[in-house]
UniProtKB/TrEMBL annotation:
Residues 37-427 form the AMP-dependent synthetase/ligase domain. One of its GO terms (cellular component) is plasma membrane. It holds the Pfam family AMP-dom_DIP2-like. It comes from Saccharopolyspora terrae. This is Fatty acyl-AMP ligase. Gene3D superfamilies: 3.30.300.30, N-terminal domain of ligase-like. CDD domains: FAAL. PANTHER family: DISCO-INTERACTING PROTEIN 2, DISCO-INTERACTING PROTEIN 2 DIP2 -RELATED. Belongs to the ATP-dependent AMP-binding enzyme family.
């Protein structure tokens, strides 16, 4: 493995060549030795100061503290045991995660038990992975212990990483880690089934970090990352930890709650860190456009942003337009928006729109797209799709989900992925792993069945939706995001980016249900439900030929979302079927 100085001198060199075969721990050691005094991570703590108190670690400090945690862990547990990370979004999270890896154990990135609405998921994951140690911080020790006791999960030992003395680093016994050994379990955010942990090896995460740095044109040692994404999510972990380790560059952390409170904080961090790479779900771009005041824009300099990754699938063109329209005056260039596709089973990143230009868009005939064909069209009855670009050092093909035969361009099918970044399978889920991770015909590696629908048009990938989310009524396919867009435009009482459309079983077959939130500016008594219901049904029937069986109107913030803030159709459907999606209908 070449030195960091050699990599920087040769940038942008072949990233994978520079790190191939390395573990996360080895990359940390390299950065700690060769860039000891340079900043590795800075957390902007808005809980301590409204201006964001900067708490930083150098590479040497991060290296030493991770070794101390590793030394403490080795006294408590054995190699390959699971270590759960229940730490808030701060520098201690990176210390805990890297300490577990350095000890030769399997990290499980999670969250403190006070994350609203996700206690059941946390308990389910802990029961599934059975950690021998839970890592947290001193101010969360009592809540974590109480949570484990209440949920009858009091087997693991609990350690506060910020109380581990630095001298414990002297007790750490180095562990040889090959690329095929497990680094961590990435639990998916689905809410309709038992928690499922994707097994990510050191080779997987290092390869994907190298692929990402190449795709987004990072310069070794010089391209910072800025992120408010939760560290227990695949993209948050990649952006704040894995990519900076591969590139030898620093990361800037913001708490997700701090972003939601004042989204301008994210843009201020981008402005203060020229050349940065960042990422957000699609909704966050529209949220910034709506919530950032003109007075705040005066001080923003966004002309030096290197890349803004948009990883929601499918990416919504309207949200992109509103964001760039709102911040063009701050120097933001449309070409920095990099629509991308990925999933936890592939570590995170699969494809990205080409650098140097705004992502391509196509307008496709809605009816023919629903029937499985991508045909360019004009007029109102079209679906506008944003390209997710080209595979990033991976193989991607579109497959008929029934025959498992590869389809030609312009035909819709399931997206299959193959590459060094594809995970090893699901933790203790042999049958599910066998269905999802399909051995390749040449005997080398396997294909990942993503469960996503997509089409390749003029060599670029367009994601059309999730197979499980497809609404099939009277033999016709309807993409839920198209229905949701129509619903949100049907009546001013519908809150933007709040609709969840899904299918439910009835005596007459599948029927469509839509859950929405009322606009936050309106009180409940100010909404004419009859007029709202009539407007929505008329719009959906007129544009999609689909009858909405029931429209459930909820208060602002009550449509189920994942922990990263995206609408969860599967959770909305589950709550509807169990009678817990309560609102006005």
């Amino acid at each position: 493995m070449r030195t960091t100085a050699e990599v920087i001198a040769d940038a942008p060199a072949s990233w994978l060549r520079d790190v191939e075969g390395a573990s996360l721990s080895a990359l940390l050691a390299r950065c700690g030795q060769e860039m000891s005094d340079r900043l590795a991570v800075t957390h902007l703590d808005y809980g301590e100061s409204p201006e964001g108190l900067a708490v930083s670690l150098t590479w040497a400090e991060l290296d030493r503290r991770a070794s101390a945690v590793a030394g403490a862990l080795q006294r408590l547990s054995s190699a390959e045991d699971r270590v759960a990370v229940l730490v808030p979004q701060r520098v201690d999270y990176l210390v805990a995660f890297l300490g577990a890896c350095r000890a030769g154990m399997v990290a499980v990135p999670l969250f403190a038990p006070d994350l609203p609405g996700h206690a059941d998921r946390l308990a389910g994951v802990l029961a599934d992975c059975e950690p021998s140690v839970v890592l947290t911080v001193a101010d969360k020790l009592d809540p974590v212990r109480d949570f484990l006791r209440e949920r009858e999960l009091d087997g693991p030992q609990v350690v506060a990483v910020d109380e581990v003395p630095e001298s414990a680093a002297d007790d750490w016994e180095p562990v040889e880690q090959g690329p095929g050994e497990l680094a961590y379990l990435q639990y998916t955010s689905g809410s309709t089934k038992a928690p499922t942990g994707v097994m990510i090896t050191h080779g997987n995460v290092v390869a994907n970090a190298a692929q990402a740095m190449s795709a987004y044109e990072a310069v070794a040692g010089r391209t910072p990352t800025v992120s408010w994404l939760p560290l227990f999510h695949d993209m948050g972990l990649m952006l704040a930890l894995a990519a900076p380790l591969v590139a030898g560059t620093r990361s800037v952390l913001i708490d997700p709650v701090a972003f939601i409170e004042r989204p301008v904080r994210w843009l201020q961090a981008l402005s203060a860190n020229p050349g940065a790479i960042s990422a957000a779900p699609n909704f966050a771009y529209a949220y910034c456009a709506a919530r950032v005041e003109d007075t705040d824009k005066v001080r923003l300099r966004l002309d030096h942003v290197r890349a803004l990754i948009d990883g929601s699938e499918p990416v919504q063109a309207g949200a992109i337009d509103r964001f760039h329209g709102a911040f063009a005056e701050c120097g933001l260039k449309a070409r920095v928006h990099r629509s991308s596709y990925g999933l936890a089973e592939a570590t995170v990143l699969v494809s990205a729109s080409p650098a140097g230009a705004a992502p391509r868009r196509v307008h496709l005939d809605r009816e023919r797209l629903a029937a499985g064909r991508a045909v360019l069209a004009t007029g109102e009855d079209v679906s506008t799709l944003v390209s997710c670009g080209l595979p990033v050092d991976q193989l991607v093909r579109i497959v008929d989900q029934h025959t498992e035969q590869e389809l030609p361009q312009d035909q819709v099918g399931e997206i299959w992925v193959r590459g060094a970044n594809v995970g090893r399978g699901y933790w203790r889920r042999q049958e599910e792993s066998a269905c999802t991770f399909v051995p390749a015909a040449d005997g080398a590696g396997h294909w990942l069945r993503t469960g996503d629908l997509g089409v390749i048009h003029e060599d670029e990938l367009y994601v059309t939706g999730r197979i499980k989310d497809l609404i099939i009524v009277d033999g016709r396919n309807h993409y839920p995001q198209d229905v949701e867009e129509t619903v949100e435009q049907a009546h001013p009482a519908v809150r933007r980016h709040s609709a969840a459309a899904f299918a439910v079983p009835t005596d007459d077959g599948e029927s469509a249900v839509v859950a929405v939130e009322r606009a936050s500016r309106l009180a409940e008594h100010e909404v004419d439900l009859d007029a709202l219901r009539q407007a929505v049904r008329s719009a959906v029937t007129g544009r999609h030929g689909l009858n909405v069986r029931e429209l459930v109107v909820l208060d602002p913030g009550e449509v189920p979302r994942t922990s990263s803030g995206k609408i969860s159709r599967s959770a909305a459907r589950k709550h509807y079927l169990t009678g817990t999606l309560r609102g006005s209908s």
